[in-house]
Amino acid sequence: MDEENTLKLYFIPYLAAGHMIPLCDIATLFASRGQHVTIITTPSNAQILRKSISDAVIHLHTVQFPSKQVGLPDGVETMTALTNLADSAKFYQAAMLLQGPIGDFVEQNPPDCIVGDFMMQWVGDLANRLQIPMLAFNGFSLFTVAAMESVRKHPFEAEPFVIPDFPHQITLRAIPEKSSTGFLEYLLEKELTSHGLIVNNFAELDGEEYIEHYERITGHKAWHLGPASLIRRTEQERAERGQNSVVSADELLSWLNSKPPNSVVYICFGSVCHYSDEQLYEIASAIEASGYGFIWVVPEKKGKEEESEEEKGKWLPKGFEERNREKGMIIRGWVPQVVILGHRAVGAFVTHCGWNSTVEAVSAGVPMITWPVVGEQFYNEKLITEVRGIGVEVGAEECCLMGFDKREKLVSRESIEKAVRRLMDGGDEGEQIRRRAQEYGEKARQAVEEGGSSHKNLTALIDDLKRLRVKP
Asked: For the whole model, what pTM was predicted?
């Protein structure tokens, strides 16, 4: 390796699984091209990330997370451990306090470029002070960022509303909470002061029309480098990505191997989205009525991990697990999602439309049943269903501030079952959606191969950063 021509890059992720995992994948992309990469995080998060980077030349630098300083229990270092808005605010305050120890490390060991999560809003100021280029990462699709920018420039008051000045006519039924949009708009505005935006997507899915739209209305450069999860080539690499699974990949694959192609519905709403017992009952009733096999991931309720199996299952219809013992799996906790999505037995994915889940499903060619919960997920839903036609909507209309907030409206079992059947029953509509999803899966894989759009973008970005380094 030509050490003199190697870039020294620092990656600073926000401390939540949905931020750390994709940024770690992106860091691995740079390391795979021979760049000198360091991820700066906290001790417990470093242990999680270390499994994912065992074969990559990536360094980890840790700083202590000031949990006690903000009134959080010792050892709380990730958003996944939180269950209420007050603790989320304390957690963010602690993340802002990391500016001190991380800033000291960066100043003493300056890199050629910092890649910072936009939630760590102080990273841009640090980079500017040291006159180092900073690339921003927010974990959204560019379609969603462009939609947010259009809405920010043309505020709305009533719902439903049409996104103004947009390539497609997109109508949203749910308006995000004002308390969340103000803060998010501030972060997006600050993001525009960076050298450019890194996007965990491929240009063919966002579409040239949205890349051009974003650059036209912001004057900012976006670099599509994904889907970054596709850098995990082997089953073992996919299984070790993220936290420890409560079910082994071998057990999951063995169960899936016993099912016919496209016969299983995968249901997962991410690691920080929790539904009421009443809503879980509706989901259970719908999936049983549909008759299809299923893998249903339900996050553990924090503070209730010691509940008995009977208590944990009180939200299920009586006798549900006995009746569906052969047909389905209910998993309480973390699973290797890319392993599940990549199996031929999985025919549909019921998802909250978080971007990581979305782009992982696209990469696997799996059509989606969309059930957004918080702000940006409602934009992602429209890209999936209306713009690219690779999913169907379940009909969620309530936008929450956080994934664990209580919802006023239930999505009925009838709506859920109807959406499942639209994709799974073998009708013309479902088959057309499935075919398009598989086509986008192939485009995703081509994008990250040599000569593909994302592969070329990474080459161009590395060259661009090297040119910046030699400028006087």
From this structure: 0.91
